[in-house]
């Protein structure tokens, strides 16, 4: 299948190949204005250059469009559900969930690949730990599945950060607090 934007290029390649085979000029033409002697290597080199230039100009815009997007619409899913979140520093609101292993995944729109942004998932309660730091893609899953027991509390934090140590800028942050099977006994 041929792309319509490549039709003039293919016609030029065909003409260039015909001129190469004919020794630099096409014979038998009824309306020849001027006969020019061109080396075969020159025609072949220009043809190859034109094909490469067209290929690069078609391929580059598709790749560069998604590189510089900032992650937005960030959400945290726990066991496949989006639970209520609060801004970091506000009063915690614990949501009761079933006491089981937790599948924790952050998802967002806009790719992190090549953008300089990172997504950090960590907890401060019951233990301070960075569970995952992602620099590519549109989702970030915690590899281990921590267990939550009845009455146990977890405070999950999600930070969108930009930069490298020691100059890290927090762009967005929120927390999701859960408690196993309701209030502690």
Descriptive notes:
The protein is of the alpha+beta class. It has two domains: 4-64, no CATH class; 72-180, Immunoglobulins (Immunoglobulin-like, Sandwich). 22% of the residues lie in helices and 34% in strands. It is built from two helices and nine strands. A five-stranded mixed sheet has the order 3-9-8-5-6, with no helix packed on it. A four-stranded antiparallel sheet has the order 2-1-4-7, with no helix packed on it. Strand 5 (117-125) and strand 6 form a beta hairpin. Helix 1 (7-22) packs antiparallel against helix 2. It is elongated and about 90 Å long. The model is unreliable at 62-67 (pLDDT under 50).
- Class per helix and strand makeup: alpha+beta
Q: What is the beta-strand fraction?
A: 25-35%
Query: How many separate domains?
Result: 2
SS element count, helices: 2
Largest sheet: 5 strands, mixed
Descriptive keywords:
2 helices; 2 domains; 185 residues; alpha+beta; Immunoglobulin-like
In short:
The protein is of the alpha+beta class.
Topology:
Elements: H1 7-22, H2 40-64, E1 72-78, E2 81-82, E3 94-97, E4 104-109, E5 117-125, E6 129-134, E7 139-141, E8 153-164, E9 167-180
Parallel strand pairs: 3-9
Antiparallel strand pairs: 1-2, 1-4, 4-7, 5-6, 5-8, 8-9
Helix pairs in contact: 1-2
């Amino acid at each position: 299948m041929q792309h319509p934007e490549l039709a003039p290029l293919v016609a030029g390649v065909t003409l260039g190949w015909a001129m190469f085979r004919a020794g630099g000029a096409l014979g038998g033409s009824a309306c020849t204005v001027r006969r020019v002697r061109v080396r075969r290597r020159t025609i072949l080199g220009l043809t190859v250059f034109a094909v490469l230039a067209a290929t690069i100009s078609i391929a580059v815009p598709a790749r560069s469009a998604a590189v510089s997007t900032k992650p937005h619409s960030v959400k945290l899913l726990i066991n496949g559900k989006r639970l209520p979140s609060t801004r970091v520093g506000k009063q915690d609101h614990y949501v009761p969930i079933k006491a089981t292993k937790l599948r924790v995944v952050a998802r967002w729109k806009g790719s992190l690949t090549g953008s300089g942004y990172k997504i950090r998932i960590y907890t401060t309660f019951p233990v301070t730990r960075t569970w995952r730091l992602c620099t590519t893609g549109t989702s970030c899953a915690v590899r281990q599945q921590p267990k939550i027991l009845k009455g146990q509390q977890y405070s999950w934090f999600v930070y969108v950060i930009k930069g490298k140590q020691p100059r890290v800028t927090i762009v967005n942050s929120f927390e999701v607090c859960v408690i196993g099977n309701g209030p502690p006994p």
